[in-house]
Design goal:
Elements: H1 20-82, H2 88-91, E1 94-100, H3 105-113, H4 118-127, E2 130-132, H5 140-149, H6 153-156, E3 162-164, E4 171-173, H7 194-199, E5 201-206, E6 217-221, E7 236-239, E8 251-254, E9 262-267, E10 279-285, E11 291-295, E12 298-302, E13 311-317, E14 323-329, E15 331-336, E16 339-344, E17 348-349, E18 359-360, H8 364-372, H9 384-388, H10 394-416, E19 422-428, H11 430-438, H12 452-455, H13 460-479, E20 484-488, E21 494-500, H14 502-508, E22 535-538, E23 542-545, H15 561-574, E24 585-590, E25 606-610, E26 613-616, H16 618-621, E27 630-632, E28 639-640, E29 650-654, H17 664-676
Parallel strand pairs: 1-19, 1-20, 5-6, 5-19, 7-8, 21-26
Antiparallel strand pairs: 2-29, 3-4, 6-18, 7-16, 9-10, 10-11, 11-12, 13-14, 14-17, 15-16, 20-29, 21-27, 21-28, 22-23, 23-25, 24-25
């Protein structure tokens, strides 16, 4: 694997170690002095020249000595500036946070012991490698909401990737409020504290910050920003051959025509409940090498088996086609004998002209384009569905991951070049995604471990950790001793070998009933008999009671809820898999005990903490009730963290031992306090 961040490429501080404000002062003084000299010469030039010629002739030796002394003084002053050590208050008023999603402390310690992570090892030697307690449940949107609000889930209201509408029981994504175009969590961000409100901040790809909040500084929203179709990411695949894959999670279409002129259409913006008919036609000349895409009057090269450069496409729709959405995408064309396949990545809003604001100030997204080029705006830009569906190979997927990390790194080092005070936050999701998709390469007990594909990826996860280590080393060097570096992750990782159908378990225990006592039900609770159902599971860790007065067809009286919750908890913690007698559930938490706080309507009655190697099935997440209780996980999605939070803590590393935290929800407050100069 080619490293994303070559350790030989070092960041060079263009300011020479001085903050931009000081260089502005120096340059202003020089310009003012030169202006004064020019004005004097213009006004008195002739008089001065006549008299000065005689003076110069008479005192030229003294003038030379004075000039030498002035030059020596100038170079001495510059050497003082060069060797100038910033005041302690200045140094401690810059905190750089590298947020590396999913970095696992057990693997970090293992790879440090093998000598593979020299930069993390140095950081650990300075202030220790600390395990950072994650949230309950340990899911990224929950965890980053806790990071932002310095609170636990029952206070900010985020409990899962998936939420349900209690009036219809329908599952929906929880990480962005599409109906109201508002941030999905409640609370006050830690950066609104007095110190960061004064010093300011810059945040790159901040998770759970869409729509972007108003900040003193700059923020680019990350996790939560959808694609132009209003989804977390819908890929498009077109082929000259018919594809029968009804379970595919993308849009599958045909390429039609002759090799010299293969015709296709790109699906555009779509709003639920309205016709999905916005299409943009294109033509591919696959007889050429590379193939040529003709789209909206422009030609783009499509190299065989390699990612294209960025491709821009504009969609017009609505009355008289007055609405306009600009999108950017990358494409991947592959030939298989006479057949041609074209993968189109999920359509990102064009960062130079996004349909919705994705940054604050609104111009910041465009400023980044000017500084680093076009970039992905979709909050979760890694197309894992296309990999698991088989439309991307492992190598295609990894190449795409590298491109995403490289563009984020360009943003980071651009901002480091003008970072003066406050906090600079940069989020890298790739460690999480790489472990999700390639844990099969390091887990001998995973069902796919012995496949040829998994054998080729024994080193993928270790090498990705090395790349994150190199990134931290570059960032540390760029700080130049003028600030504090923090490296953290929101949770750790674990194997995902067995999928548990939690609704099927609840059916077996008598808490969930199906119509006519059917053995199974499709997704979205298609055959659930709500008149007899007491509890149901949705998402990856949550169980809700079918509560009267809250759910549309609720039957459980609120007064009976505590006793029923306790009963379900006890039975689930004792439940064993029929095939091997093992307990897949390590602990069940009562929702209100997860965080002592006032009632929140989004708080599940129970949070299920699975044991290592187990996780809720995809069917469970969307309200399915299969006939079986579990299934071996034969998907490339082979690692996970949606288990008992005690099993998957994150990491915390800092170059200053004075800045530390024990829980993810404490990190923001610790940074605010540290920057204020108050010792913890």
């Amino acid at each position: 694997m080619i490293p994303i961040f070559p350790p030989t490429i070092l960041y060079v501080d263009p300011t020479g170690g001085l903050p931009p404000s000081m260089w502005i002062s120096i340059l202003s003084g020089i310009i003012a002095s030169l202006g004064a000299v020019w004005l004097a010469l213009k006004t008195f030039g002739r008089q001065l020249w006549a008299s000065s010629a005689a003076l110069i002739k008479r005192f030229y030796r003294a003038i030379i000595v004075v000039a030498i002394l002035v030059l020596l003084g100038f170079f001495a002053a510059m050497s003082i500036f060069k060797d100038r050590k910033p005041a302690q208050s200045s140094a401690t008023q810059r905190v750089l946070v590298l947020a590396l999603d999913g970095l696992d402390p057990v693997l970090v310690e293992q790879f440090m012991g093998e000598g593979r992570l020299p930069n993390f090892s140095r950081l650990a030697a300075e202030s220790g490698l600390h395990r950072l307690a994650t949230t309950n449940p340990p899911q990224s949107p929950v965890a980053w909401s806790s990071f932002i609000t310095a609170s636990e889930p029952s206070r900010h209201g985020m409990f899962d990737f998936i939420k349900r509408d209690p009036k219809s029981y329908a599952p929906d994504l929880a990480i962005a409020d599409r109906a109201h175009l508002s941030i999905p969590w409640k609370g006050t961000p830690f950066w609104e504290g007095p110190t960061l409100s004064r010093l300011g901040m810059t945040a790159l790809r901040m998770p759970m910050a869409f729509p972007p909040p108003v900040v003193k500084g700059r923020i680019l929203a990350g996790m939560g920003v959808w694609d132009i179709r209003g989804t977390e990411g819908t890929y498009i695949y077109l082929s000259t051959k018919a594809i029968d894959q009804p379970e595919a999670r993308g849009i599958i279409l045909r390429l039609e025509g002759e090799t010299r002129a293969l015709r296709g259409k790109i699906p555009g913006p779509y709003h639920a409940g309205q016709p999905d008919n916005v299409r943009e036609p294109f033509v591919v000349d696959a007889s050429r090498n590379p193939a040529v895409l003709k789209l909206q009057g422009k030609d783009y090269a499509l190299p065989d088996g390699r990612w294209s450069d960025w491709i821009r496409v504009e969609f017009r729709f609505g009355p008289l086609n007055l609405q306009k959405v600009r999108a950017v995408t990358r494409m991947l064309l592959k030939r298989d004998r006479e057949e041609v396949g074209l993968y189109i990545s999920p359509l990102n809003f064009d960062p130079a002209a996004p349909f919705y604001p994705i940054s604050h100030p609104g111009s910041y997204a465009r400023d980044l384009v000017d500084a680093v080029g076009i970039y992905h705006t979709r909050g979760m830009p890694f197309d894992t569905p296309a990999l698991t569906d088989g439309f991307l190979s492992d190598e295609d997927f990894l190449a795409h991951c590298r491109m995403i990390d490289e563009e984020t790194a360009r943003m980071l080092f651009f901002e480091l070049g003008r970072f003066e005070t406050g906090m600079l936050f940069s989020y890298f999701e790739s460690p999480d995604i790489i472990q999700h998709m390639f844990w099969r390469g390091i887990d001998p007990e995973h069902p796919l471990y012995h496949t040829p594909e998994a054998e080729r990826h024994r080193e993928t996860i270790p090498q990705w950790y090395e790349q994150m280590d190199a990134l931290a080393g570059r960032a540390h060097a760029a700080l130049g001793g003028r600030g504090t570096l923090v490296v953290l992750s929101d949770h750790g990782f674990a194997p995902f070998r067995t999928a548990v159908h939690l609704n099927s378990v609840l059916r077996d225990l008598g808490f969930l009933k199906l119509q006519n006592d059917a053995p199974s039900s499709d997704q979205f609770f298609a055959a659930v008999d709500w008149r007899r159902t007491q509890a149901y599971a949705v998402g990856f860790n949550a169980i809700y009671l079918n509560l009267a007065g809250r759910e549309q067809q609720g039957i459980v009286a609120p007064g009976d809820a505590p006793a029923l919750s306790a009963k379900i908890k006890n039975l689930l913690e004792q439940w064993t898999l029929p095939q091997d007698g093992k307990k897949p559930i390590q602990q069940v938490f009562v929702g209100q005990e997860a965080d002592k706080s006032p009632d929140n309507p989004n708080t599940p009655e129970l949070i299920v903490g699975y044991g290592r190697g187990y996780r809720a099935s995809w069917e469970t997440a969307l309200g399915g009730v299969p006939a079986q209780f579990s299934a071996p996980n034969e998907s490339k999605w082979s690692g996970d963290h949606c288990i008992d939070p005690a099993l998957v803590p994150g990491i915390f590393l800092s170059t200053d031992p004075a800045l530390r935290a024990s829980r993810l929800s404490e990190v923001g407050s610790a940074i605010e306090q540290y920057l204020s100069g108050v010792k913890p």
